[in-house]
Amino acid sequence: MNLPQLDSLRRIAPLAWPVFIGQIAVLAFSTVDTLLLARFSAIDLAALSVGAACYITVFIGLMGVVMAVSPMAGQLFGAGKPQEAGDQLHQAVWLALALTVVGEVLLLVPDPFLALAQTTPEVEAKCAAIWPRWA
User: Fold this and answer.
1) Is the confidence at residue 130, as pLDDT, over 80?
2) Which residues does 44 contact at the CB level (< 8 Å), separation at least 6?
3) Mean pLDDT score, 56-74
4) Confidence band (pLDDT; 50, 70, 90) for 133?
């Protein structure tokens, strides 16, 4: 590795390690869920998979919208416009709150997700325990 690459690595590493640890934690959480339910029954594992896919789809999709604010605020801050950068971040909070409501509504109405997943009646019955409005 040449000197400029090593310098870049030294500057990026302190910023990257919390993201890396967070990703490892998410992976470990999913792995433990899968291991526990796979030993119990295939139907429960299928219900977990459908639920996780629904959650991840909504979460990642909406998170991407909010994360788009970061480069815009960074560009404004780098251009010496801290007030505008702060305004941008302020709007990001409102955007995140609005998207939280959208995400909650999407997760409270699982019918489209289950239709796309083409689940069996047994898996739908297990999903009923996850989404109480079906009970």
Assistant:
1) no
2) 37, 126
3) 87
4) low
3-state secondary structure 41-62: CHHHHHHHHHHHHHHHHHHHHH
Angle at 73 between CA 72 and CA 74, to 5 degrees: 90
Look up tokens 């950068």; give the residue: 85
- Alpha-carbon distance 130 to 8, whole Å? 45
Write down the pLDDT at residue 69: 86
Identify whether the C-beta of residue 110 lies closer than 8 Å to the C-beta of residue 131. yes
pLDDT at 16: 87
Helix residue ranges, H only, 1-135: 3-38, 42-67, 69-78, 82-108, 111-117, 121-130
